[in-house]
Amino acid sequence: MAILKVARMGHPILRREAAPVTEKEIKSAELQQFIDDMIETMHEYDGLGLAAPQVHRPIRLSVVEVQDNPRYPNKEHVGLHVFINPVLTILNKATNSYWEGCLSVPGLRGLVARPNKIKVKYLDRDGKAAEFIAENFLSTVLQHEFDHLDGKLYIDRLVDSTKLVFEQEFERYWLPNAEDTELDD
Ligand code: ZN
């Protein structure tokens, strides 16, 4: 097991389109080890998710787990999932807005509106086809993670540029009213 180095905004790997993972790769001990390392890295930094390009590997693979998280209190939980080659379908165009953060954009939060219900088709870490329906906060988490596979960051999708703030200012000026900003619209 190893904690991987996280690429920060400005590193070109975060802006590349990632390549699909082959069946042969999924079955390799090397990729399985890499998945374990990604999970360990996500836990180490209190991330809700981590995409392979964030740890310098441009392949279509993300890990997600939402438990009690000090960086995102009071959110619905989801167990550990490994998403390989995810394909996303929007089930509801209505959006929810959440203050997103990203391990590759440390110290900042930004308000982003995303469709609030999606379906994901993907392969799990055994290469088995699976489907997952996500709503509300989890829908946002997954869209954020899968954006990384297309070279996109949440700052590309801000509601407006005045809603990109430092974490300390977020806690001071925005968090007290955060409920007002987590609206359906
Ligand atoms: Zn991110």
Feature tags:
185 residues; alpha+beta; Peptide Deformylase; 6-stranded antiparallel β-sheet; 5 helices; 31% strand; binds zinc ion
Care to describe what's here?
This protein is of the alpha+beta class and 185 residues long. The protein has one domain: Peptide deformylase (Peptide Deformylase), CATH 3.90.45.10. It is 25% helix and 31% strand. The protein is built from five helices and six strands; from the N terminus they run ααβββββαβαα. Strands 1, 2, 3, 4, 5 and 6 form a six-stranded antiparallel beta sheet that branches. Strand 3 and strand 4 form a beta hairpin. The longest helix has 16 residues. The chain is globular and about 50 Å long. The model has no long low-confidence stretch (mean pLDDT 93). It binds zinc ion.
